[in-house]
């Protein structure tokens, strides 16, 4: 899964030849998936909030930023399955509209 997401980042944003290749993580969780999708689609926190609002999922800006923090940070928050599910559904709907 991590290799797929790294490839998606390269496909959407282009590969930076000066940077070292991204190593796939051995263990992947919802926070890593969310971060990599955010990078691949060049999303800001406001964009993520808009995507979730379109899906009628209530979340605040601090909750989203807490999920983007390092796991050892005191304000880190786990990204739940339901959060990721609504985000993926909203992202797919948004990308489908762009292609049409």
From TrEMBL:
Pfam assignment, any one: DUF1456
InterPro entries named among the record's database cross-references: YehS-like
Highest taxon above the source species: Bacteria
PANTHER family with a match to the protein in the record: CYTOPLASMIC PROTEIN, CYTOPLASMIC PROTEIN-RELATED
Protein's name in the database: Conserved protein, DUF1456 family
Organism: Escherichia coli
Species lineage: Bacteria, Pseudomonadati, Pseudomonadota, Gammaproteobacteria, Enterobacterales
């Amino acid at each position: 899964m991590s290799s797929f997401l790294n490839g998606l980042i390269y496909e959407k944003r282009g590969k930076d030849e000066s940077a070292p290749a991204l190593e796939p993580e051995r263990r992947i969780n919802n926070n890593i998936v969310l971060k990599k999708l955010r990078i691949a689609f060049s999303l800001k926190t406001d964009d993520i909030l808009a995507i979730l609002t379109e899906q009628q999922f209530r979340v605040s800006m601090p909750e989203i930023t807490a999920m983007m923090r390092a796991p050892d940070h005191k304000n880190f928050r786990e990204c739940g399955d339901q959060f990721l599910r609504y985000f993926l559904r909203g992202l797919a709907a948004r990308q489908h509209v762009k292609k049409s």
